[in-house]
Amino acid sequence: MVLVTTFNCFSQDLKIVDVFILGTGNSNAPWSESFESGLKFSLDSNNIRYNLFTEYLDVGSFNEKNQFDLMEFLLSTKYEKINPQFLVTTGPSASHFLKENSDLFPESLKVGIRNNFEDIKNYDYYFSNNNKYAEIVSEMLRLSGADSVYVVANNDTESYAFQYNDFLSELKKEDVGITVFLNMNMDDLIESVKSLPPKSVLFCLPVAKRRGDEILNPREVVSQLNKVSSSPIFADSEIILGYGIVGGYLSSPFDLGKSVGEIIISEINGYKIEKKRATQYLYAYDWNELEKWDLTTKARKDGVFINKPLKNISVFTRWQIVLFFILLFILLFMTRLVFLILRKKKLSTQSPFIALSDRELEVAKKIYHGVSLKEIAYDFKLSDRTVSTYKKRIMEKLRVSDNSELIQFLFKNKSYLK
Which residue numbers delimit the HTH luxR-type domain (predicted)? Predict the structure, then answer.
């Protein structure tokens, strides 16, 4: 792993707040990106001016002790003169590192996420995982009706062992058979899931796997297993939804990041809130996977669904089809006319978004309002890749180089996004 640092600075308020994230995992991992996006969205939405520093202990790919030694060196050199107001740790390894380095940023207010229970005394705020896996397991078994559970897990690092032991202790409370694919290499794992028995499920804890020269993140691991698994797959995070899991009771790293932002804002404004915070979860499902495993009638009706099709339209008679196409032609004509009028209006008001197409402008509005790319794809019935391409075009046309500059540009010109 190469430790990555990001730096963001916004000039919306008088006071600059320094925030340091010490994470477990990889800065490019989907969980990390989603969490950081939620934090930035919360601070940006409240016009907080901040510097954000991030470093990650990639214990899933490299030796934990070596990562600790490297981090100690990095903090004593690169960050020697930095004393952030807020230190946020994510994951057991980061929590353990803080415990071993209690003098790290001594004046910082500390926020702990997915930390070891015995380490909560080291934090000013921490997010509780009470009953996290109990509800995840309960919803998985209710939805699937399975009588045996196969678990993909690692326990070769403290971080992996922490989540593995937590999950297994809850699963053992249920009257189901349990088989664990522990520390298994990816090729053997793929072969093992090809012939799982009936009435079984596969639960994937968030682990990275090496395959050849490539290191697969948890989302990529699930995606590959989904291609061959003979049983439905479950996991514990919404960032894997759409990549091969059925869904269920899932954590939301984006909402978790927003909650950390709310803590920072409360401290800045002098408001006191409870030290113990609740981790953010939701019921969410992938309709394609529900249909694949004949589980559509069992999903909670109040849950969030992706890939859910529109209701079937009844068959038209011949004259109704003709009328439909006539109305469609009129609609397209009127749409084109409205487009030309609006384009002329854009030119007259010198909108900074004049270079964007109508669809690109709609995507930009969604981004401004904090909607994730996955939700935008669902709203517009587009693929994730198509929405990502739209975002790239927007950034090119607005001449911004990264996501932070894009957010800043949108907020600066928000009057054009109404």
Answer: 349-414
